[in-house]
Every structure is written in structure tokens, then in C-alpha cells.
Amino acid sequence: MNDNLHTLRCFGCGARSSGAESRPDFRCAACGDLFEVEYAGWSQRKGHDRPNPGALKWLWRERRSSSESLDLSGVWRFRELLPILDNFGNAVTLREGNTPLYQLKRVSKALGMDQLFAKHQGMNPTGSFKDTGMTAALSVARERGFEWVACASTGNTSAAMAAYAARAGMRSLVLIPEGKIAWGKLAQAMDYGAVTCQLKTDFDGCVRVLTQTVKQSPIYLLNSVNPYRLEGQKTPAFEIAEAFDWSVPDHLIVPGGNLANSSALGKGFRELCELGLVSRLPRISVIQAEGANPLARSFAKSNGTVFEPVEAHTRATAIRIGNPASWRKAARVIQDTGGWCLDVNEREIAVAKAEIGAEGLGCEPASAVTLAGLKKLVAQGKVAATDSVVLVLTGHTLKDAEYTIGFHSGTLLNDQELSGHEGEVEALRRNAVPVDASAAAVLDVVKASVR
Length: 451
Ligand code: F0G
Hints:
Elements: E1 7-10, E2 16-17, E3 35-38, H1 40-44, H2 53-62, E4 101-103, H3 105-111, E5 116-120, H4 130-143, E6 148-152, H5 156-168, E7 171-177, H6 183-191, E8 195-199, H7 203-215, E9 219-221, H8 227-233, H9 235-243, E10 251-255, H10 260-274, E11 283-289, H11 294-302, H12 327-337, E12 341-344, H13 346-358, H14 365-379, E13 389-393, H15 401-409, H16 415-418, H17 422-428, H18 439-449
Parallel strand pairs: 5-13, 6-7, 6-9, 7-8, 10-11, 10-13, 11-12
Antiparallel strand pairs: 1-2, 1-3, 4-5
The structure holds ligand F0G.
């Protein structure tokens, strides 16, 4: 069986290559830009050969009640739209995807909206959206016979890669910026058996070193410059469309770091539209942290056409990225869908994270930029109360417990960040209280909490 129908197409100059010919750094030999996976057959097929939207919708839904390993994956359940392997039997899966779409009831009420949802990608096997991309790209690495895989990471990619490599019996190499990733993520890389190097540089520096490393050794690069990562990461778009009964929400809001996820979700919706599974695209907006906002700056100055990297600083360490690899792809998605790119400050991120926690969901700081961004878009009149909106929550709250404890114990934000907003922050804080070991003392605390 040959399930492979793809070619790679350069996003910059349009040059095509077969997947097997790609260079170790996945850059185009002619222009240095990134590749995108293309399925030329889809546009050429006519009549019976074109995928039948009705049949696909039925098949994908049926697979939800199957016990076959591939069908149990929320990525490979949609395998007709990611024919990237010679044999789907080579897929390495941990039952990723099929993540919940929750209604955000309290936040909706506060914003006067009634159709606000969170697609919680933190509910994946290793606790982040990276699993959906990793199952795709690591399966390609396995099929092509690689023994070693590697990534530079702010933490989540490395956790996902280490887990999938371990499942496949492969070795993994992780480069992370020293002291700049959340403990939960570092612990995962160690637990899943990766060779982990902490480099005295930032994420962008780790990417530079890894690019050199893979050119000197047969190690398969699993950063999101690898176009197969995006094939897995586009599948939440299919899940969202399915959950909306094959219509789409008005607006999707995604955090922006290295900018692959927004690119992938945009590709997913575009393909659904091209194949006639949905009839329109949602607006896709990308939100960055104020201290790591090169794309937001680019949109403010030149509508996403001219780009300058920044030196990145934010406590949302997952998106502490100053020179995002996929900025051109993400800019195209925002422009083509009529979305926006904004930035939000450290207090706005912390408050939004606490509000998502108070919904009983929780997420990591980088994910909370979506809610902080939504509030700005509503205030600017860009999102209407009647719009249906999906926030993509990218990571689980337990990834960065230190941040959460810092917020609730009052040590996270400094006076300058808090200034003028002390009441808003205080109302959300739920610190742990030291109490005498007596029922009376505990009940006093309960009474005091009913404000
Ligand atoms: N949210 C979380 C929790 C992330 O870990 C990342 C990226 C993003 C959002 C941004 O996604 O890069 O596709 O724009 N984390 C990377 C990592 C870079 O190494 O784990 P993006």
C-alpha cells in the first residue's frame, strides 16, 4: 500500500521537491524559505476521484467508535487529508488529538458574548498541541529510517518529541535555553529519555546551533521548519469544523511564538474549504506577548510585509521567541482570513490565565494570550458580541506550576506591572493559607473567603 500523495513546495519561490530530497534544515536550496506540504492530486482530480466531502465526514465520524490504533488518534482519524507516509502502518501515535472544545461560560458573560469556546490542546498526551505535529513528523522520520531526531525548544516541542521518539524506539536530542523553560517541560524530556542540552543562549540561539548540528550528522530535525509538523497541527481545524457541524466559527484566536501553529491551522481550514468540506474560512488572529512581538510590530508598521526580529523577553516562556521561522506563513494566514495580530502585556496575560483557571480549565501562560487578545479585540470593536469565537489553548496548566503559584502568592507581577490594576488582580488571587490544625481555624478561612 502506498499512502503517499505529497510533494513539498517552497513557500517563497514555489520550487517543488519530493519529501525524500529535502535538506537537513528543510530550507529551500534556491531561496532559503520554508516548504509547505502540497497534495497536487487534489486539484487535478475530477469527478469520482475527487475526495467526496459527504463520505469523508461520515468516515471520520465512524472512526470515533473504532478501536483501531490509527482511528483512535485525532490526527490519523483524518488521514485522507495528510497522506504523507508510504504506509500509514508506520505512524507513531499516543492517541493525540480529539481534544475537548469547552464553552467559556464566565468569561463569555463578562464580555457579553454567548458563543465563546476554548479548544484545549493542552489535553493532549504530553500536555500540549505539539503532540499533533509530532505524531506526523516523527512518523516520517521513522519511515525514512532515521535513528536520531532533534529539536530546539522552549519546552513543549522537546517534551512531545522525547515521548514520541521513546514510543518509536528512537533516540532524541533536545536543545533548550538554560533557565528559560518551565520545570514541567524539562522534567518530561528527562523522563522520556531524551539527551537534553541546556545551552547558554535563548531559543533563537538554540535554533542556530541545532541547524549546524543536523548539517553535520544524520539527525532528523523536528522543529516546525519541518513541514510535516504542520500537517499534524492542522488537524484541530478539522476537529473544530466537525464540532461546528461543518460550518466554522467566525473567529479563531491563536498564540504566536515560532508561528507554525497559526500557519498550520490556517492551512487546515484552507484545505477544508478547497475540498468543499466547509464553505468559508474563519478569521484567524495571532496574539503575541509584548516583549516577544515581532509579528505584531510588523503588522502595526507594514501589515505583515516587512519583518525585523526582536530580542525576546516574557514570562510566558513558551513564546519567548524573537525570530520566528514561520512568520511569512502566519502573516499570509492573517491577511487571507481578515484576522489581526496584536500583543498583550505581562499583567494582561497573568489575569487572563487566572480567569481561564477559574473556569476549571487552566492553561499555561502562553495559551492565555488568546483571552487577553480577545478582550482587546472586543474593546476595539473588531469582535462583536454575536460572533462565535474559539480560543486555542495550547498547553496544560501543570506545565508551568511555578508561574501559577507566583501569581496567586503575589510574587509574579512587579509594582509597575500592577499599577492601577491592583484590585482586578487581587480579586483573582487564591493563595494557599497557613492554618492551625483545627476545624475552627479552617472554618474561619472558609468564612473569610466568602466575600
Ligand atoms: N503555546 C505554547 C504552549 C507553546 O509551547 C508554543 C510554542 C506556542 C504557544 C507558540 O506556537 O511556535 O507554533 O507559534 N512552543 C515551542 C516549543 C516553540 O519549543 O515548544 P508557535
